[in-house]
């Protein structure tokens, strides 16, 4: 038990150190240094977002999963693709800002293509309207990826395709979540997509901030691009 507690505390300390990274270069350096231990660390946190997002997509996708082309944005080491592969999806293109994370994703053998890109710095380096599913898990949060990136996700999706996004619902992410949801609803009002599902989850992952205990909540959004 003591060993488990110590491991959790070590993971918390590592993640909290990332919050001190202010510049873009510092954030990239953090993720490059974290790549080697990322999968083990998020397992300690009981991080459920990749499986929750994959299950949400799978429950609504009615086409041929094996033929579907999935864009995994902020793919990290490949945790989302791993979960989607279990559900029958097999064609993945990954984008991430960290070369070390992309190296880990490449080693997984899950991706047909991987591209390095800093999210929010411009258009995504893929063809517009070419993906059956676009998914972003974990990156839409305070201090990470700007809310406006969701418009790029929509542009990359085929008409009738799905965009799946996640964010946290904890105290530290309240303002970001509100801004994100304003943007999602505005895009729906503009006729860009329709909301398919919003799923709030209580036990998202173990809390890491100094003023939170237990588990923090999160949310999965699924939208369908308009024709």
From TrEMBL:
Domain of life per record: Eukaryota
GO molecular function annotation: S-adenosylmethionine-dependent methyltransferase activity
Domain called Methyltransferase type: residue spans: 71-164
InterPro entries reported in the protein's UniProt record: Methyltransf_11, SAM-dependent_MTases_sf
Gene3D superfamilies: Vaccinia Virus protein VP39
Protein name per the record: Methyltransferase type 11 domain-containing protein
Organism: Champsocephalus esox (pike icefish)
């Amino acid at each position: 038990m003591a060993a488990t507690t110590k491991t959790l505390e070590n993971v918390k300390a590592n993640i909290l150190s990332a919050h001190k990274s202010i510049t873009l270069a510092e954030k990239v350096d953090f993720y490059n240094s974290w790549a080697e231990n990322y999968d083990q660390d998020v397992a300690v946190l009981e991080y459920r977002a990749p499986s929750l997002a994959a299950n949400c997509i799978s429950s609504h996708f009615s086409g041929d999963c094996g033929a579907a082309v999935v864009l995994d944005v902020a793919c990290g080491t490949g945790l989302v693709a791993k979960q989607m592969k279990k559900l029958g999806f097999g064609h993945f293109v990954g984008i991430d800002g960290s070369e070390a994370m992309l190296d880990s994703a490449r080693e997984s053998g899950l991706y047909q293509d991987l591209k390095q890109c800093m999210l929010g710095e411009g258009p995504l380096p893929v063809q517009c309207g070419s993906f059956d599913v676009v998914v972003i898990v974990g990156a839409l949060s305070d201090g990470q990826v700007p809310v406006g990136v969701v418009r790029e996700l929509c542009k990359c999706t085929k008409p009738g395709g799905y965009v799946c996004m996640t964010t946290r619902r904890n105290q530290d992410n309240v303002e970001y979540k509100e801004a994100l949801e304003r943007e999602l609803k505005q895009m729906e009002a503009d006729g860009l997509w329709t909301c398919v599902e919003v799923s709030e989850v209580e036990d998202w992952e173990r809390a890491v901030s100094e003023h939170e205990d237990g588990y923090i909540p999160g949310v999965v959004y699924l939208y369908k691009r308009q024709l």
